[in-house]
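Example S7 (structure tokens).
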């Protein structure tokens, strides 16, 4: 089986990018170790702090963030980092080449019940002559990502990575190596599986409500087939399922916070996951346009997300287009 480094070298990956990915994996392996120890190491439960989004931080949110920050900021190629758990970006080497944006622990409400969580990351080139402690340098749209991925900490720890040449999966072995276990991932175009938090049904836009209502009608409704539903409450696990066997995952805008475009964050959830999904032949939208074409104004900006099997996501978009044209008529 191929080591991550061998695979990247065979695919002519830029040497410095390879070096950065290897460094990121040093941090993710340490996070995996902390998660495995869990209650034994006293790292479960919450802290007394809230992050910039007003969410209570879990101990492991803070620990994972510190691990990533320490490892990355000690690397000469890293000009700066931005994180879900940091209100402002943190500058690294002013001559560094890369910016790394991350969600240190996604799905952290799952930690205390021992269900899957993950680390999501997005890598950008650092524009020259900028102050890397200011968010301006980081506010690049998703198309500018030179690599993106996640490490899912589930029954196995799995790195899912794209450097813009498809999507590949690497499983962490007992020897501490990431080994290639799935090459050139392609998401099936059609699906019978959807993922949405149904408890928010009454808060959605009419287009989203009627799309989901039609899925629930199954073979008796306009979609003429029965659908199954899943909800892990960790985007990283939902995207992994979609990449593995297809499906649609959506966390749409809802009227609980009408002024926010959605719940999930554009720069460290939406963009990296959208790059993986598009690189695997799927589609990732905010129900109206591709997520990676949204120009960010804020490092912690939110976005509505619908991603997965191409034809299913296109169908969902068609419901929104119809609704929009009725509104305008
Ligand atoms: O609890 P809800 O509303 O279903 O939200 C679940 C969503 O929230 C998230 O957990 C947010 O991520 P964080 O844990 O990094 O804040 C997503 O991974 C997931 O899709
Ligand atoms: Mg998250
Ligand atoms: Mg998080």
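Recovered sequence:
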């Amino acid at each position: 089986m191929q080591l991550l480094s061998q695979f990247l070298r065979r695919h002519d990956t830029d040497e410095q990018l390879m070096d950065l990915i290897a460094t990121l994996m040093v941090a993710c392996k340490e996070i995996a170790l902390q998660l495995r120890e869990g209650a034994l190491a006293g790292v479960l439960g919450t802290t007394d702090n809230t992050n910039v989004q007003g969410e209570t931080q879990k101990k492991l949110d803070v620990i994972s963030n510190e691990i990533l920050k320490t490892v990355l900021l000690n690397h000469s190629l890293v000009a700066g980092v931005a994180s879900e758990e940091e209100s402002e970006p943190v500058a690294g080497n002013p001559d560094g080449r890369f910016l790394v944006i991350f969600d240190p622990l996604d799905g952290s409400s799952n930690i205390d019940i021992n269900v899957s969580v993950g680390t999501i990351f997005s890598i950008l080139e650092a524009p020259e002559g900028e102050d890397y402690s200011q968010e301006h340098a980081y506010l690049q749209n998703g198309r500018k990502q030179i690599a993106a991925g996640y490490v899912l900490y589930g029954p196995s720890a799995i790195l899912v990575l794209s450097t813009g040449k498809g999507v590949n999966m690497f499983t962490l072995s007992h020897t501490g190596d990431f080994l290639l276990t799935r090459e050139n991932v392609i998401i099936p175009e059609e699906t019978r599986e959807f993922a949405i938090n149904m408890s928010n049904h009454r808060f959605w836009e009419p287009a989203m409500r009627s799309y989901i209502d039609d899925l629930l009608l199954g073979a008796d409704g306009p979609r003429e087939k029965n659908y199954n539903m899943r909800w892990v409450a960790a985007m990283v696990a939902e995207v992994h399922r979609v990449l593995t066997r297809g499906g649609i995952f959506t966390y749409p805008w809802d009227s609980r916070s009408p002024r926010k475009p959605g719940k999930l964050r554009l720069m460290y959830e939406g963009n990296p996951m959208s790059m993986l999904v598009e690189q695997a032949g799927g589609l990732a939208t905010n129900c109206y346009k591709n997520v990676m074409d949204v120009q960010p104004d804020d490092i912690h900006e939110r976005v509505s997300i619908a991603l997965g099997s191409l034809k299913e996501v296109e169908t969902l978009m068609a419901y929104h287009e119809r609704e929009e044209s009725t509104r305008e008529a």
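Notes on this example. The mean pLDDT is 96.
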